[in-house]
């Protein structure tokens, strides 16, 4: 095993609603990459956050006549249930805002001590102007080119962002600055600072819509404290579009996991993500999903066949390593081509299944049950006896079970 620990961080959900399948693209892709890295011997520590204090949560709590805690717990529970459904490994550490308020106020106090932030009443703002030459390194945005609408806060500069805010709505928390709640941009940089001891991490991931201002603001806080960037590499995941439009709650063209799973396998979505670069948008159509499901159904037959026919295990470790290295280096489409090619070659069945298992696909782990094994043996006898009418009837049963 390699000794160096790779530090990975992914922006987690704001738990106010059911996440749609597009929201899971970062988590599933991270899981695939981390599985590949670990197989190759890397020691990866994966930190994920949960935003369980937010205006959206407060709004939903009012709509449902529930507490913010009830709302956040309900939707966080759903989120982790989908981790199981998609066969994702849990993060090594999950950091929730509500569990980390002392960490966040301590973090903000250090920014104040370093004169990187300033306080106006209860509100605390980050002084972006002081780091103008560094601001924009993540997103490419420049302060001089930004247009900001006036807001209700009394700030030195319109582009300064809030670290701790006074509020008249929703839950409030005690702090050295007064009762209020933390700003969104501070939680991720605070968690990275705490759990990775202020070090620059290796990979920071999140949706493409988080590049600015969220990731930019995270990075500038870390720079103010440590004089170095927050992350060596940033992964910004492309959108998932449905019938040509970005999947969005506001548009109403979303597919929730619980609806997706009524028609398709989790593996179907995972396979789709391997067809293109992680940063590129994917345009979903029903035809594309049906096509990918058909491929997964064929994969299931391969797994069943090697088991039912007791095919001797023969794994080409060189090819396995080659494909997993492609995945670890984010060359998804190239890896996918090889995977599909292997799936079509009878002699490569075990190599194909080994790769799929390493990447977290579910179908290689499913064993044929006793009843189906008995039906398969009976079908073979009927074929041998040339009792084709009964054989065809049983073939249909076995095809429905994805073993023929």
Question: What this model shows, in words?
Answer:
- By secondary structure, the protein is α/β, with parallel strands linked by helices.
- The protein folds into three domains: 6-242, HUPs (Rossmann fold); 263-365, no CATH class; 370-401, no CATH class.
- Helix content is 45%, strand content 13%.
- It is built from 14 helices and twelve strands.
- It has helices spanning 25-39, 55-64, 68-85, 101-113, 184-195, 211-226, 257-260, 266-273, 286-308, 317-328, 332-343, 349-358, 370-384, 388-400, and strands at residues 5-10, 43-50, 93-96, 117-120, 123-126, 162-165, 181-182, 201-207, 231-237, 240-242, 245-246, 282-284.
- The strands form three sheets. Strands 3-2-1-8-9 form a five-stranded parallel β-sheet, with helices on both faces. Strands 4-5-6-7 form a four-stranded antiparallel β-sheet.
- Helix 1 (25-39) links the parallel strand 1 and strand 2.
- Helix 10 packs antiparallel against helix 11 (332-343).
- The protein is elongated and about 90 Å long.
Question: Summary?
Answer:
This protein is of the alpha/beta class and 404 residues long. 45% of the residues lie in helices and 13% in strands.
């Amino acid at each position: 095993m390699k000794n160096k620990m790779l530090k990975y961080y992914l922006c987690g959900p704001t738990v106010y609603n059911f996440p749609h399948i597009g929201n899971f693209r970062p988590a599933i892709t991270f899981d695939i990459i981390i599985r590949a890295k670990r197989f190759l011997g890397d020691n990866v520590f994966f930190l994920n956050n949960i935003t369980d204090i937010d205006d959206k949560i407060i709004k939903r709590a009012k709509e449902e006549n529930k507490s913010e805690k009830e709302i956040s717990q309900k939707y966080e529970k759903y989120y982790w249930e989908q981790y199981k459904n998609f066969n994702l490994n849990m993060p090594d550490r999950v950091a929730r805002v509500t569990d980390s308020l002392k960490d966040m106020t301590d973090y903000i106090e250090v920014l104040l001590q370093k004169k990187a932030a300033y306080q106006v009443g209860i509100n605390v703002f980050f002084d972006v102007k002081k780091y103008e030459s560094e601001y924009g390194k993540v997103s490419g945005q420049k302060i001089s080119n930004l247009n900001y609408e006036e807001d209700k806060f009394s700030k030195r500069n319109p582009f300064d962002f809030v670290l701790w805010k006074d509020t008249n709505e929703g839950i409030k928390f005690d702090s050295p600055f007064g009762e209020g709640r933390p700003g969104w941009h501070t939680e991720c940089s605070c968690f990275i600072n705490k759990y990775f001891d202020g070090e620059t991490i290796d990979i920071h991931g999140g949706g493409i819509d988080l590049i600015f201002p969220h990731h930019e603001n995270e990075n500038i806080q870390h720079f103010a404290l440590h004089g170095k960037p927050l992350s060596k590499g940033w992964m910004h995941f492309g959108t998932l579009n449905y019938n040509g439009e970005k999947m969005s709650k506001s548009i109403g063209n979303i597919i929730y996991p619980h609806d997706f799973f009524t028609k398709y396998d989790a593996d179907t979505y995972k396979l789709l993500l391997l067809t293109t670069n992680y940063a590129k948008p994917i345009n979903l159509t029903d035809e594309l999903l049906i096509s990918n499901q058909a491929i997964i159904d064929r994969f299931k037959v391969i797994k069943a066949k090697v088991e039912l026919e007791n095919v001797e295990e023969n794994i080409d470790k060189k090819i396995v390593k080659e494909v997993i290295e492609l995945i670890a280096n984010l060359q998804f489409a190239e890896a996918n081509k090889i995977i599909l090619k292997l799936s079509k070659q009878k002699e490569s069945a075990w190599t194909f299944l080994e790769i799929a298992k390493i990447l977290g696909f579910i179908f290689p782990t499913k064993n044929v049950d006793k009843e189906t094994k008995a039906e398969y043996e009976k079908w073979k006898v009927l074929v041998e006896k040339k009792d084709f009418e009964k054989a065809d009837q049983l073939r249909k049963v076995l095809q429905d079970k994805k073993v023929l």
